[in-house]
Amino acid sequence: MSLKLHQAFWLVFLTTFVVVPVxxxxxxxxxxxxxRVLPSVMMLEVENQRGERFxxxxxxxxxxxxxxxxxxxxxxxxxxxxxxxxxxRVKVLGCIDHDNWxxxxxxxLEKSMLHRRATLCREMEPVAARAYVIGTPKGYxxxxxxxxxxxxxxxxxxxxYQLSCPISPGNSGSPIINQRGEVIGVAAWTxxxxxxxxxAIPTQEFSRLSVSKPLMTWEQLALIARSPSTxxxxxxHQPVVQASDASMGDYSAFIKRLNESGGKSVKIIFxxxxxxxxxxxxxx
Length: 284
Description:
By secondary structure, the protein is α+β, with helices and mostly antiparallel strands. 17% of the residues lie in helices and 38% in strands.
């Protein structure tokens, strides 16, 4: 075999069979990225305990019948339906596990949705990396927007992505996607008095939740939330005070709850007209 032929053989071999490390994989075009991730994205049609209806987002992950979203989207739900981009509607039976403090929830679908599960990236993306979000801003289903990871910040004692992606009410629970088409987190909240300053819960926090826990139906969750003997604790044992009729009862109960939380870190979640603001402070 001549030298030139020998060199050509090894060039073909290397380009065909050598595995490229994950970090060096070529980025997808936005069109291909959207097509790859879209089957796993769902719009959540939520009816709360007061009969009010609103829209959220979620992504199929972990198993073929488990969706990941933010807890504040479903914490007061009476019924939830998942709608996929191809028009399929699937009933959401309830919540398998949730984490108040990290604002995450695992939802159980009525049936398995095969060949739709998203690929998760368990490593933190670097600052300035491009990011995409697919969700339902203001009810406009399966919309994609892009931006950058503006910074990685410690919020309430754990890391969150700060994003420049435009995120609106209805995007809560939307998957945040890197350039390789992998889910790196879910959209959680937006700074109300700023422009394109939004935050997402990284996929690393998903490990706090378990798909093996027994299903809690919406009726069971509502009973627990209304029980006066139940103390709502987060994973880090910090109380969460939710200003809603279903969980707080009345104003006097709300004040009593705050007075009993002296010396503790408290998170208050206000939900109004599809917008969520989260405030954290220590009761003196």
